Amino acid sequence: MFFRKKLDYDQLFAKYLDSDFVLFPVAENPPSKSDLTNFEKQFSISLPGEFRDLYNSRLGGVYIEVKETIWPRPKAYEAGPFWSFLYALHVYSFSADSPEWLNIHRQAEAFTKNVNPNYVPFLKIVGDADVYCFDKSGSIFQWDHELDQFNKIEKSFNQLLEYEIAELKRRKGQKKAGKP
C-alpha cells in the first residue's frame, strides 16, 4: 500500500519565500470532507490526496505574490518578456467568500462550460492564460490556451506546487537583478 507523506507547508515556504514575498491563506476555515466530496460529484472528478491535504491545512489554499515594491505591476500595453508578467500564483479556494477569480467552484464551472468539461483548473500563475487542471482521475495537466490542448504533467500536486514556487522565486531574482 502507498502512503503519501504530508507536505510541511511552513518548511516549503521557508525554503523559497523571503521578505520580498507576501503569502495569503485563502480561507479562514478549511472545507469539510462533504464540501470536497460534493465538488468531486459535481464535476465527476477525483481530487488527489495531496490536494486535499492543502485544504485540510490551516491555509485552505494559497496565494503568493512578490511584493509590488520589488516587482511593480505591469501597466496596460506594457511590453516585456513573458516571464516579467508572472509575479504571483494561487491555488484556487473552496471558500464561498473568495472573489470569483480565486473561487474554485466558479472557475471550474466556467472552465468546464467554456473550455473542456473533462478538466477542472486548480492552480494559476498570475499573468499566464494557461492553467493547471485535474482530469477526471485526478492526474495533472496544463492547458495550453493557444493550441487548446492539455499536456500531462508528470508531477504530483506537492511536486508541482514546490516547482512553481521555486520558479516564482527564480523570476523574482531575475526581476531584482534587472534582467530582461
Uncertain residue segments: none
Order of helices and strands: HEHHEEHEEEEH
Tally of contiguous helical segments = 5
Structural class by sheet pairing and helices: alpha+beta
The termini sit apart by 48 Å
- Strand fraction equals 15-25%
**Overall mean pLDDT score?**
91
Proportion of helical residues:
25-40%
If you compute it from the alpha carbons, what radius of gyration comes out, rounded to the nearest whole angstrom? 16 Å
Q: Overall 3D geometry?
A: globular
Main sheet characteristics: 7 strands, antiparallel
Overall number of strands: 7
Major sheet strand order: 1-2-3-4-5-6-7
Describe the structure.
The protein is of the alpha+beta class and 180 residues long. Helices cover 32% and strands 20% of the residues. It has helices spanning 9-16, 33-43, 49-56, 104-114, 157-176; strands spanning 21-25, 62-66, 88-91, 119-126, 131-135, 140-144, 149-152. The protein has a 7-stranded antiparallel sheet with strand order 1-2-3-4-5-6-7, sandwiched between helices. β5 (131-135) and β6 (140-144) form a beta hairpin. The longest helix is centred in the last third of the chain and has 20 residues, at 157-176. The termini are far apart. The model has no long low-confidence stretch (mean pLDDT 91).
